[in-house]
Amino acid sequence: MDFLNAIVALSNFVIIPAIAYGSQLALGALGVTLIYGILRFSNFAHGDTMAFGAMLAVLITWWFQSMGISFGVLPTALLALPFAILGTMALMLITDRVVYRFYREQKAKPVILVIVSMGVMFIMNGLVRFIIGPNDQKFADGERFIISVREFKAMTGLKEGLAIKTTQGITVVVAIICVVLLFWFLNRTRTGKSMRAYSDNEDLALLSGINPERVVMYTWLIVAALATTAGVLYGLDKSFKPFVYFQLLLPIFASAIVGGLGSPLGAIAGGFVIAFSEVTITYAWKKVLKYLMPESLEPSSLVQLLSTDYKFAVSFVILIVVLLFKPTGLFKGKSV
Amino acid sequence: MSEPVKNTALFVLVFAMIALTGFMQSWNVALLILNMGLISAIMALGVNLQWGFAGLFNVGVMGFVALGGLAVVLTSAAPVEGAWSAGGWRIVIALLAGAGTIVGTVMVRQRMAVGRARNIATIAILVGGFFLYRGIFDPGVEAVEAINPALQGNLGGLNLPVLLAWPMGGLLAAGVAWLIGKTALGLRSDYLAIATLGIAEIIIAVMKNEDWLARGVKNVVGLDRPVPYEIDLQNSSSFINRAEGLGMDVATASSIFVKLNYSVLFAVVLVLIFVMAQLALKSPWGRMMRAIRDNEVAAEAMGKDVTNRHLQIFVLGSAICGIGGAMMTTLDGQLTPGTYQPLRYTFLIWVMVIVGGSGNNLGAVLGGFLIWFLWVQVEPMGLWLMQMITSGMAEGSGLKKHLIDSAAHMRLLTMGVILLLVLRFSPRGLIPEK
């Protein structure tokens, strides 16, 4: 019984939150990694792209709610998501046209593009704050839990409860759908194949008649969809706050680099590695250990390795260790 | 227009704008802009040293600025009574144990042969060291934080004159930069950027959470000042006589006098750093740095030690940012770790360097003044603009209220637009590198 209680406590506080957070990071990291693979720079504006997409979803959700449209037990934000994606796609294409294309034609060094993306980051951050303000916004509705603590306890008779929030369930399901679609697109369609070819070897791809502008356009479209989805899922799960998205940049980059920049599979793996490490290292293990240890050995402290405020430090340390010992990441990304 | 004339004109323009603020708004505001402009110029010089001279992409400026602020508390604050005997030494020993663990790990990895034994030894030392560190550390922290937690609960400082805190800020930032450089400088530019971005966040997290160090988010207020207090001036009869002689209100005169004192102090530091940076740029060392920046492989083939030169300039640039950070905290009179934000303390400094002209010290200084002026003044300008735009709208309309309320967020937008415009149409900045 104690063992079961320990497993339930572990799932409730570590495994389920980490899976949800990992899915969100993976979607974010996929966007970063695609831009790195095709456009060959680290996009500092990615966090703010997520914030922009999520903001559109929040606004559309409010509009739907005011018209009385809802999605039953699921959050209305899911209905708003496709429209938000369209809006973000438009913004990405405009940004590329107005800003990035000039530097692509100049064949500017990647580091210049990174600085340019800093400018884009300022503008998007300003836009989001200008439109919706810097404060917390809650926009989740529908059923709150798939299983609540009380139901679980009644069902199993265990002392520990297990809760699965609807948003966590949705996060995982939507993330899986996105990833399947993305991989189908990259591996099976003509455009996807040309994207991979372009990412592998630009010159060869150009020689075989691939239109680079088309590849770049599709990349931005996909990145807009991924970023918006990641942003909305994160906002549903926690809450929407523009500044938090900016801070997500670090774990997202860590995920992409740990997995290997330019490798989509690596981005997903990296997302989960970072999420699980962050959650396990900042979790107070006392509750779980209490069930597993004999009474005499029960820990007196919280058995928390690091305070939760240091979660950035965790992703950072993993990032540094990977960079020092395996610079191409777990899945052999680019290292130019 | 010849170059010196153009540069002088640019500087005259910026200072004229600041003077105009003095005439139109108030001299207090103008001096505030001038003082922060001086500090911004110093920080921009630091970033310019790293990016303009050596091509190092450091986006962790905020961390070094914050360390400079921390140095002010550690140097000039009065020591908290009983804190050192209660747990201060314990904390120091714990930190030494932590450092010893890392040194031990590195030594084991260097000495032992590659294989399973080495991996097991590494993990054993790391895990054992961590628990040893926490075992010594936690009780010490608890004891220190229990001392008068409403007002103190930290170790306090060395009670030295506050002006000493500025070089100390530089030293502290330099020390941390050396540690970071040792691990992260081998990385290529994008990775270095992300690594430094992370380090800055970690430094802020440490300053927010380690209450024993500088009270964390509870802030340290009432730090010493190198200049007289306004209230003392207002009570001194000689000052009152002089203010009345100039026909000024005593309260305004005292605050302007204090700010002018700061301006003089900051200007002295700025000139010192500027002259040194300029000498460094023109020296053989500066030429070598630019050679390394332009072609690392060729420079290495000529026998230049690229890694060590990078480390050197990374430490120097970070130290300058630390000095700027210490000066800023002195000007504020308080250390508030919660207010450090990357957009303001890292990326804004970058905008200054790029707009001013990377690789040119004069350009970085100009960028510091210009961008800081805009950062402050865009808000009232935006408000004015919004009032113009919305003047035709009905009173009490929701959109009008929203637009006017949001005017404060115009500054981020403006900075982004300025950065992109400069990058596009004048990529070498207002005063380009020679």
Q: What is the name of the CATH class of chain A?
A: Mainly Alpha
Which series of helices and strands of chain B comes N to C?
A: HHHHHHHHHHHHHHHHHH
Largest inter-chain interface? Answer: A-B, 50 and 45 residues
Which overall shape of chain B is indicated by the principal axes computed on the Cα atoms? globular
Rg calc of chain B: 24 Å
What's the alpha carbon Rg of chain A, rounded to whole Å? 21 Å
Main sheet makeup of chain B = none
Query: Quaternary state, please?
Result: heterodimer
Structural class, from helix and strand content of chain B? mainly alpha
Task: Kindly report the average pLDDT value of chain A.
Answer: 89
Number of discrete domains of chain B: 2
Low-confidence stretches of chain B: none
Q: Main sheet of chain A, how many strands, which sense, barrel?
A: 2 strands, antiparallel
The global form of chain A is globular
- In terms of DSSP E residues, the strand content of chain B is under 5%
Order of helices and strands of chain A: HHHHEHEHHHHHHHH
Q: Which helices and strands appear, and what pairs or packs with what?
A:
The complex is a heterodimer of chains A (336) and B (434).
Chain A: H1 2-39, H2 46-67, H3 77-106, H4 110-132, E1 145-147, H5 149-156, E2 164-165, H6 166-188, H7 190-200, H8 202-207, H9 212-237, H10 242-259, H11 264-282, H12 286-292, H13 311-325
Antiparallel strand pairs in A: 1-2
Chain B: H1 3-24, H2 27-53, H3 61-76, H4 83-111, H5 116-145, H6 165-184, H7 189-209, H8 211-214, H9 230-235, H10 237-245, H11 250-282, H12 284-294, H13 296-301, H14 306-332, H15 342-356, H16 361-390, H17 398-406, H18 410-425
